[in-house]
Amino acid sequence: MSDSNLYIAFDPLYAHPLPDGHRFPMLKYELIPEQLMFEQVITADNLHQPEVCADEIILSTHDAGYLKKLKDQTLSAKEQRQIGFPQSPELTLRELVITQGTINCSIHALQNGIGLNVAGGTHHAFSDRGEGFCLLNDFAVAANYLLRHHLAKRILIIDLDVHQGNGTAKIFENQPAVFTFSMHGRHNYPFHKERSDLDIPLEDGTDTATYLYLLKQNLPPLIDRFRPDFAFYLSGVDILSTDKFGKLKVSREGCRERDHFVFSTLHGHGIPCTVAMGGGYSPDIRDIITAHCNTFKEAAAFF
Questions:
Q1: CB within 8 A of 163, min separation 6: which ones?
Q2: Using 50, 70 and 90 to split pLDDT, how confident is the model at 2?
Q3: Higher pLDDT, 2 or 61
């Protein structure tokens, strides 16, 4: 059952509660690999612990002044409110590890087709600030890493979290080598949207059939037109009908079919892919874990 080639970035640090007792949504980072091992989808050998991302790599994407604030714990009260977490050394360390995990997944994917980060998808982080529980934009940092080291020439970011990847869109708004594609709730956070290269805003109550139709109508021609040689996929499960913030009506099987279609399309075009889990806020943690684990299962089926 286990696929020994499946590379999964995971660090127990992800699952630790923050000093003030914040636990949700951190618990899923602990439960996802446990469930995958219980179901014999993976073994412990598939799990790889990232190191801390070096400052010089972060600074290819984020401003030096902002990184210094994160490390020195000098974010203002307003900046902390925008992020949604109180600052702490543990939180900054977690973000640096998550970001390196996404880079590691990308390097592995170049040779093996795919790499998956149990965490990541911190798409609300801008170059100079954090928002929406995101401090550092791991996809943006990893994409810039690939470009700077000439490991990719044309990168597609597929953001299917229910919230628009506003930070990612802004960071790459003038970068023709990166194409940002976002399907997200029209009336959901962030309420001020940035402009992705392709935005598909979804109305409240969008059902499974409509969601999948829009995805299947847009992704293949986009790939044919842009011709990426690498992709990042943000597979948020906050599109589920059970999600308390998502406002969409996509079923669990519909969410799995979404993942199946993305992976089959990328695999069919020979495009390596890095995956991050993104959001998921269903009241029953089992809905979140099952949907996220389905993403890993679909990835294993193709790669």
A1: 123, 124, 132, 184, 185, 188, 189, 190, 236, 238, 279
A2: low
A3: 61
0.85 cut: is pTM over it?
yes
Residue spans of the domains in the chain: they are: 8-302
CA distances from 178 to 121, 196, 230 (A): 16, 10, 10
Per-residue confidence band for 15, with pLDDT thresholds at 50, 70 and 90: low
Class of domain 8-302: alpha beta
167: Cβ contacts below 8 Å, ≥ 6 apart: 122, 123, 124, 125, 126, 131, 134, 137, 140, 194
Are 35 and 289 within 8 A, CB to CB?
A: yes
The pLDDT score that the predictor gives to residue 112 is 96
Helix (H) / strand (E) element for 109: namely helix 89-112
Q: What percent of the chain has pLDDT over 70?
A: 94
Structure tokens at 275: 């995956």
Kind plus residue range of the DSSP H or E element containing 274:
strand 273-276
Whether residue 235 contacts residue 71, with contact meaning beta carbons closer than 8 Å, is answered with no
One-letter amino acid for residue 260 of the chain: H
Residue type, 231: A
How far is Cα 197 from Cα 182, in angstroms, rounded to an integer?
8
